[in-house]
Amino acid sequence: MNLEYSDEHKAFRDDVCRFLDEKLPEHLTDRGRRGRAPSKAEHEEWHAILHEQGWLAGNWPREFGGAGWDAVQRHIFETETTARGAPRIVPFGVAMLGPVLQKFGSKAQQDHYLPRILDGTDWWCQGYSEPGAGSDLASLRCEAVRDGDHYVVNGQKTWTTLGQYADHIFCLVRTSKEGKPQEGISFLLIDMATPGVEVRPIVLIDGSVEVNEVWFSDVRVPVENLVGEENKGWTYAKYLLTHERTNIAGVGFASAGLAALKRIARAEQDGGRPLAENPHFAARVARVEIDLMAMATTNLRVVSAAAGGQAPGAESSMLKIKGTVIRQEINALAKTAAGPYALPFQSEAVEGTNEEPVGPDYAARVTGQYLNNRKLSIYGGSNEVQRQIIAKTMLGL
Ligand SMILES: Cc1cc2nc3c(=O)[nH]c(=O)nc-3n(C[C@H](O)[C@H](O)[C@H](O)COP(=O)(O)OP(=O)(O)OC[C@H]3O[C@@H](n4cnc5c(N)ncnc54)[C@H](O)[C@@H]3O)c2cc1C
């Protein structure tokens, strides 16, 4: 298998780099370098720049207003943008709901919602998980009961990422208690401004609000907001998850994190010399860099197989585990490198501040990021569950 980019893909990468040189504003990458999560306005700014270029939805076919890129082009774009510290494209509308509506939505749903995802009118969030229904998603209980031309929704969702910014939520709801649990689930689109929807923030260990609880009390949802058929939502939910797990390796994020780690290790002193020259520390950095290079190669192998029409199977579980372990190790090393400067609790660094941080500015968010990124091995399917998948499908255990 040839892992070199073709001439066309090299030319595409040059185009992407030129575009980023010209159009990626410095204040957005500066935010990334400081390890601060983007604000809503910053997300929207980057979204609008990409939309204007026609590059927001690389994964969508051109007929729906996407860029129609192949898997390798999408990989190049994601790697280059994340490595430079650009905000990620919020995935819920573009990467998750868009493909589901394109495959299973009605013409009216496609005509209404898809252009609004592209131009940023609607911000979507994902209402899958509930207390007691995470890895075992099929046991979800949030209920929708048909009442004339509406569904009446009651229940709770949790861990709803960026739900505080969203004006719409796509939800898995229980519409039947008959048969297997998977057979009574439907996929509903809900306007968050509907009476009875309440968003309650969950404050994370690093002081940030990134996830929420969403409560539904007698929320009336028009039946035309049902995607596909009633009780067939499990099929659409699984289709969506195959899209959620693309780019799960996070090569670009890891590369950016590694570059930041090396900057810290060069700046910090150990016994009168840069920490980067300490053989023990340098060996740990080298080990994680070698792991990253090996994973990047595996990632490319999976991507090029997908470009040839093969859907990634258990390989995506392998990439999920390895990618998240590497990023967590980079975070741990950055915390070690920052030493005592990683100790002050600088909650204001989460949202940005004009005040001078305690110690060098690169240290202000190191611990916050370390703590926040414990999530990587949980969301998108926990690493333990990914190991079960590998055990069953690859090892035949
Ligand atoms: C930061 C963050 C953001 C998230 N954002 C969203 C979102 O926007 N929308 C949404 O719907 N959900 C979201 N989630 C939820 C996420 O998908 C779930 O947390 C995840 O699927 C794990 O489910 P759980 O938290 O219920 O843990 P549980 O399923 O209760 O698992 C608890 C522990 O048991 C282990 N375990 C469970 N089953 C098995 C098994 N069969 N074999 C071996 N070990 C097992 C798990 O690995 C874990 O260690 C988010 C989660 C986080 C942490």
- Shape by Cα distribution: globular
Strand order of the biggest β-sheet:
1-4-5-8
Category by helix and strand content: alpha+beta
Number of helices: 13
Cα(first) to Cα(last) distance is 29 Å
Order of helices and strands: HHHHHHEEEEEEEEHHEEHHHHH
In round numbers, the mean pLDDT is 91
| Main sheet attributes: strand count, strand direction, barrel closure | 4 strands, mixed
Strand segment count: 10
List unreliable stretches of 5+ residues.
Answer: none
What does the radius of gyration come to?
Answer: 22 Å
Bound molecules: flavin-adenine dinucleotide
What share of the residues lie within helices? 40-55%
Beta-strand residue fraction: 5-15%
SSE layout and pairing:
Blueprint: H1 7-23, H2 26-33, H3 40-53, H4 71-83, H5 91-104, H6 107-118, E1 124-127, E2 143-147, E3 150-157, E4 168-174, E5 185-191, E6 197-203, E7 209-222, E8 226-227, H7 233-244, H8 251-267, E9 269-270, E10 273-274, H9 279-307, H10 314-338, H11 348-351, H12 366-372, H13 383-393
Parallel strand pairs: 1-4
Antiparallel strand pairs: 2-3, 3-7, 4-5, 5-8, 6-7, 9-10
Bound molecules: flavin-adenine dinucleotide.
The site of flavin-adenine dinucleotide has 18 residues, from strand 1 and helix 13.
